[in-house]
Amino acid sequence: MGYKTKISPRGADLGKDIVASPDGFGLEQPRIVVEVKHRPNESMGSKEIRSFLGGRHKDDKGLYVITGGFSKDAKYEGDRASIPLTLMDIDDLVSEILVNYENMDVETKMLLPLKKVYWPK
Q: Beta 85-88 vs 69-70: how paired, if at all?
């Protein structure tokens, strides 16, 4: 999608798993800070969203991805955030992968090999 990414090492990441920017260092705008959580059977609450937003700079854009969903309060926090913030659940993530798959690099396609199947109506 035109961005280079820097992925935080395993362990405490101080509220950011990925930083995406045109230069790959997070120095050029737009800078997108991404937090990713794997909680398939649990909804993310407003406390976690507020914590994520608290560590952002005024020019940052945020993306919060979770394999579960977001509570009503978490969505409210996202809507009223002081920076542009997108909340993405597993269904949103799958949709974005499908839309952008053809433009993904070879390494990503090797991690996530998909094959088009045509289904007659």
A: unpaired
Give me the domain span that covers residue 86: 4-111
To 5 degrees, how large is the angle CA 27–CA 29–CA 32?
Answer: 90
Sheet holding 18-21, edge to edge: 4-7, 18-21, 32-37, 61-66, 85-88
Q: Is there a domain that residue 119 lies in?
A: no
pTM of full prediction above 0.90:
no
Number of domains in the chain: 1
**Which pLDDT score is estimated for 13?**
61
d(CA 33, CA 26): 9
Nearest 5°: phi and psi at 64? -115, 115
Give the CATH number of the domain where residue 52 resides: 3.40.1350.10
